[in-house]
Design goal:
It is built from 19 helices and twelve strands. The chain is α/β, with parallel strands linked by helices. The chain folds into five domains: 117 residues, PAS domain (Beta-Lactamase, 2-Layer Sandwich); 59 residues; 163 residues, P-loop containing nucleotide triphosphate hydrolases (Rossmann fold); 81 residues, Helicase, Ruva Protein, domain 3 (Orthogonal Bundle), CATH 1.10.8; 43 residues. The strands form three sheets. The chain has a five-stranded antiparallel sheet with strand order 2-1-5-4-3, sandwiched between helices. It has a five-stranded parallel sheet with strand order 7-8-11-6-12. β4 and β5 form a beta hairpin. The N and C termini lie far apart (87 Å). This is Sigma 54-interacting transcriptional regulator.
Amino acid sequence: MPKLFLEVFTKVLEFTDEPLLLLDSDLKVVKANHFFYITFSLKPENTEGVLIYDLASGQWNIPKLRKLLEKILSKNNIFNNFEIKHNFEHIGPKIMHLKAGRIYKDVNHKQFILLGIEDITEQEHDKQHLEKMVKTRTAELKRAKQAAEDEKLIAEDAMCEIKKLKEQLKAERAYLTEEIKLEYNHEKIIGSSDTLKYVLYKVEQIAQTNTTVLILGETGTGKELIARAIHGSSKRKNKALVKVNCAALPANLIESELFGHEKGAFTGSDRRQLGRFEVADGATLFLDEIGELPLELQSKLLRVLQDGEFERLGNPKTIKVDVRIITATNRNLEKEVEDGRFRADLWYRLNVFPITMPPLRERVTDIPPLVDFYVQKISRRLGKTIDHIPRKVMSSIENYHWPGNVRELENVLERAVINSSSSKLHLVDDLRKSYKHLGKNLKTLEAIERDYIVGVLKQTNWKVSGSNSAAQILGLNRSTLRGRMRKLNITRS
């Protein structure tokens, strides 16, 4: 094979984030990319030059694979697809989606086959689970319909319920299918600092209720993890946490995304679509970056919070839902209210139980376990072994200000792992920048807590307990609040 041809295909193979194989006309492996070796636990010396059917001692001698490759060679077909279920030697039973086609790029007009492999095991399991749910729910509703067939009204109600549940399950399935494609950090929240313990205490306080929660904090502090922790400890945990990022969608699509639309409601709406509020009925809806919600939609969101009802775009019929709302923002919503960019009444509705996620610079004792966790996670993904973090490296990380918080820490550690040629972590980012000037205006967590409690007390005219009191707004028992006031030396002047 000409060197230039091989170089071009090497670049193509390595720029693709799924396993790829390049086969010659004899069906021998010419080249494979890094993802192939990682996925199937094989090595280049046991792969290149080997007949595809003989890989891993004949484990790849799969009838469907033979049929696919022979079809391509005999009929010059491009982009053939097959789905196979196979028990691979090193990785066990998997469901793989194969995509292959014959190509003619060689100057000598030799034939080569590019074979793409996608592991769809998890997606298929999720798909089967959702189909089973639909089948089970549909069977239950059919039995209910059969029992009530003598009464026409009940039968009609049952049919309406079937239609509603099918639509909701279809919408939830579509939502979960999208979620499967995303990479989520499902690991536990890492750290044991007092500030993080206080946050987790607040999570434990509020999880079992249906109270609206507002999660505050800088970018990258892990606000979504806190939302998932609240949902995971709630009575609604058996349903999906439905998420909408208000900053990621254009203003003209957010309303349709939240509340849904009817067919023909606007140009391009060729079918009816359930909004996230309907998908989250009986579950939890997480509205991330709530400060980015357009002003004209804030009144509609306020109505859902107050009455639990709304209308789809293009349909005047009122829909009622039971949804627990968790919101998050890195903005100062009080300032947004003052500047006229956020409704004051919506702010009061959202700020029932605020939880502030502390920045990483206030969780210095959490940095070592976070570093260990991310180094191991990234090393496994990249096929490396990093088992030593020099004291000097850890000190540099601990002394840095981390304006991007945990997200920035993960990015710095990924670059460090990539650039480490041995088992010792090598830091490539310069973390020696001084942030001493920021200390002049920073307050301790205790001072911030004192200011916040005083502000709420002033707002309630120093009413400690009872309806519309400071204790109710803060979500604290009145004796707990009085204890905090004594400790922080809070008295009415």
